[in-house]
């Protein structure tokens, strides 16, 4: 958790600087596995930094504090139904929590494990094209 907190701070600072330097442009973010975990952690604290977020195979083993700033944010979570690293119940719990915060949450599942499936990439491309 201390490592996640440090990485979250660094990523938040990077994204704030990026958003400030590119005012008026959409910020799309995508993270896979541990990258998705860090991205989710940033999202929990600073949802205003993003226009669209893709979390691929995230594992968030805690329930975050409520975050009203997630209302209306567009999020896509992807996962494998047989993922031994990021079990589906954890992904579903995160998707449910995000939806309860008012985020426009989509969940795309494939029948594999922790690998990235071709259909998953297609779903991500469709989601990002809507930006």
Automatic annotation (TrEMBL):
InterPro entries: AB_hydrolase_fold (IPR029058). Gene3D superfamilies: alpha/beta hydrolase. It comes from the Bacteria. SUPFAM superfamilies: alpha/beta-Hydrolases. This is Phospholipase/carboxylesterase. It comes from Paracoccus solventivorans.
């Amino acid at each position: 958790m201390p490592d996640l907190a440090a990485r979250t701070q660094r990523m938040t600072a990077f994204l704030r600087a990026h958003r400030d330097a590119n005012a008026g442009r959409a910020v799309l973010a995508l993270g896979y596995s541990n990258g998705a975990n860090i991205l989710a952690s940033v999202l929990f604290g600073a949802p205003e930094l993003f226009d669209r977020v893709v979390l691929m195979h995230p594992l968030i083993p805690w329930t975050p504090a409520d975050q009203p700033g997630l209302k209306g944010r567009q999020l896509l979570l992807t996962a494998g139904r047989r993922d031994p690293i990021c079990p589906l119940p954890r992904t579903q719990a995160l998707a449910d929590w995000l939806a309860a915060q008012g985020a426009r949450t989509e969940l795309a599942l494939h029948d594999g494990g922790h690998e990235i499936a071709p259909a998953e990439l297609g779903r991500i491309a469709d989601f990002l094209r809507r930006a």
